[in-house]
Design a protein that fits this description.
It is a single chain. This protein is mainly alpha-helical. The chain is built from three helices and no strands. Helix 1 runs antiparallel to helix 2. It is globular. It starts with a helix and ends with a helix.
């Protein structure tokens, strides 16, 4: 999968699970870059961590709701 395709995939999944569109776009670019953590800025690490946490919380919420149906 190319970096561009990977970025699109990440962006779609983040937005699908309730992450703000613009934040998801920035995080998707960081995640798809494939850079090791050591090469990311503190701001990039913080943004990626925050967005991934939001994604995880929303995904778990959706799974809990689906299990009740």
């Amino acid at each position: 999968m190319s970096a561009h395709d990977l970025e699109g995939f990440f962006h779609t999944q983040l937005v699908k699970h309730g992450v703000n569109y613009d934040l998801a776009a920035k995080a998707a670019k960081i995640l798809a870059s494939g850079k090791p953590d050591e090469l990311l800025t503190v701001e990039e690490k913080d943004l990626a961590t925050e967005v991934c946490q939001q994604w995880s919380e929303q995904r778990q919420r959706i799974e809990r709701l689906n299990s009740l149906l």
